[in-house]
Design a protein that fits this description.
With 254 residues, the chain is α+β, with helices and mostly antiparallel strands. The chain is built from 11 helices and 4 strands. It has a 4-stranded mixed sheet with strand order 2-1-3-4, covered by helices on one side. β3 and β4 form a beta hairpin.
């Protein structure tokens, strides 16, 4: 419901402040600069627990293995989303609406260390990045205190302890869920709602061991293919599509 949400915020003249770490990072990198000079938003992704797992073994990974995120301690659902990279797909959709950027201007790169939380590249080729420890208190505090910064009780980032910072391209065969998110965003209308709803049903089925890990994106894809996409003017229409997608995804699982 990004289009409806952003339109409501503009109508009420409400400023949106991001709390998610990646979008907070982008927001911080935009401060003091002209939006018209932005060339690309770069979202960083850890790559999750299966970044280097042979592709042939992904069909047989277990729930326990998928829940072993290398950098973050999160709830089960978002941890599985990180393993499939659907979390990054949803963040791409969010970034599109929050920062008014075309999908083609939003890039995802894998950064296994989770030190650089996201970046903004400007038209002169300069890249501004926000770095910090992997702690959600930092972006939450910035949203609460903006435009000021609170003094934190957490330990600051020491780059000398981390050594190398690596950045890798996303393998499409390894993370097909990300491509589905871009597809849903490009199609617009109610398709992103279908993507999200089908993902929630598929992830729940995987956590309850009713489907395999690689079935998650297949369930989402089939549900999207079944959907007759349309524009939604009211939140009720989005909720109706959400219910339909959940039912359809559940039927495919059964």
């Amino acid at each position: 419901a990004g289009e409806i949400f952003v339109a409501a915020a503009k109508k009420k003249r409400v400023r949106l402040l991001p709390v998610d770490s990646e979008h907070s990072a982008i927001f911080q990198c935009l401060q003091g600069n002209q939006r018209t000079e932005v060339d690309k938003i770069i979202l960083t992704a850890s790559g999750g627990p299966f970044l280097r797992t042979p592709l042939g073994r992904l069909d047989k990974v277990t729930v326990k293995q998928a829940l072993q995120h290398p950098n973050w301690k999160m709830g089960q659902k978002i941890t599985i989303d990180s393993a499939t990279m659907m979390n990054k797909g949803l963040e791409v959709i969010e970034a599109h609406w929050e920062f008014d950027m075309e999908p083609s201007a939003i890039q995802v790169v894998i950064h296994p260390q989770s030190v650089v939380h996201s970046m903004v590249r400007y038209q002169d080729g300069s890249i501004i990045a926000q770095l910090g420890i992997a702690d959600m208190r930092i972006p939450i505090a910035y949203a609460l205190s903006f435009p000021h910064r609170l003094k934190g009780s957490w330990s600051p980032l020491d780059l000398t302890e981390h050594g190398e910072l690596n950045f890798l391209p996303v393998e499409k065969k390894r993370f097909p869920a990300l491509a589905l998110a871009y597809e849903a965003l490009n199609e617009g209308g109610t398709m992103p709602a279908v993507l999200n709803a089908a993902n929630e049903i598929a992830v729940d089925a995987f956590l309850s061991r009713r489907i395999g890990f690689r079935e998650i994106h297949r369930i989402i894809m089939r549900t999207m293919q079944k959907h007759a996409n349309r524009a939604a003017k009211e939140i009720g229409e989005v909720l109706e599509v959400d219910r339909w997608a959940r039912g359809q995804a559940a039927a495919f699982i059964q």
